[in-house]
Amino acid sequence: MTDAPSIGPKFTQRREIRSFVLRGGRMTEGQRQAWETQWPRWGLSVEQGVIDPRVIFGREALLNLEIGFGMGDSLAQMAASHPEQDFIGIEVHRPGVGSLLKMIDEQGLTNLRIYCTDANEVLDQCLPDASLDRVMLFFPDPWHKKRHHKRRIVQHDFVQRIRHKLRVGGIFHLATDWENYAEHMLDVMEGSEGMVNNVAPGSFAPRPDERPVTKFEKRGERLGHGVWDLLYRRTN
Questions:
Q1: Where does substrate bind (predicted)?
Q2: 229 is catalytic
Q3: 186, 171, 181, 155: which is closest to 235 by C-alpha?
Q4: Does residue 31 have a pLDDT over 80?
Q5: Residue 57 host element (H or E)
Q6: Share of the chain above pLDDT 90, in %
Q7: Which tens digits make up the pLDDT trace of 66-80?
Q8: Catalytic option among 3, 141, 157, 209
Q9: Three-state SS for 86?
Q10: Per the CATH hierarchy, to which homologous superfamily does domain 48-234 belong?
Q11: What is the mean pLDDT of residues 142-156?
């Protein structure tokens, strides 16, 4: 019997600035039904405290976390393509959570769990240190106006939250279609303790095959938008 998972340095100060805005919008009937029927099985809450992924999933496997999965299409695709791995998704937009729950039910996925809350609360209160093999942050809100840059989720404090939850050797994978935000991400990541560029110092990465191309990304490509991927590995 191994020891219960630990939860390490806590970043408990309540932050006044949030990196997201709760969007409006009603759930569709299908999303609502999925929430009511599937959330009790696949949903996780901060009130549960620190989880043991081995207990949650009933096995020991590579563990992936996606922060801000939107409507859930890419996360469901990754979970379906890699049944030997486990996935946790975090999203504050309830229709998106309902959408992913609907896909879980329709596709019979068993290797996926969901939080519907602020990612920082999950990182601070729920995930054991050194428990994640990969963290994914795809197309977060770019907060493109200069006066809003302080709202961008990729900041040094946030990266250290991620670092402590990754295993040594684990990967933090970021992607954005805003060049200015890509440059901001690169600057923050290059200056982050315990993280090293998995490609080369100061370099963006080619899109890894395991990141699905989303409808959002395809639309951006049609409009001539670029996409920048960054891969960083925890070193200590």
A1: 145, 177, 214-217
A2: no
A3: 171
A4: yes
A5: helix 53-57
A6: 78
A7: 999 999 999 999 999
A8: 141
A9: strand
A10: Vaccinia Virus protein VP39 (3.40.50.150)
A11: 80
Residues of each annotated binding site for S-adenosyl-L-methionine: 66, 91, 118, 141
**CA triplet 8, 10, 13: central angle to 5 degrees?**
175
Task: Label residue 11 by pLDDT band (50, 70, 90).
Answer: very low
What distance in Å separates the CA atoms of residue 138 and residue 135, rounded to the nearest whole number? 10
Please tell me the distance from the alpha carbon of residue 186 to that of residue 118, in angstroms, as a whole number.
23
What pTM value is reported for the model?
A: 0.88
Q: Report the binding-site residues for substrate.
A: 145, 177, 214-217
- Give Cα 183 distance to the centre of its chain: 20
Q: Average of pLDDT values for 189-215?
A: 95
User: Cα angle vertex 231, ends 111, 120, to 5°?
Assistant: 60
Do 204 and 227 meet the contact criterion of CB atoms below 8 Å apart? no
Could you tell me which residues are annotated as the binding site? 66, 91, 118, 141, 145, 177, 214-217
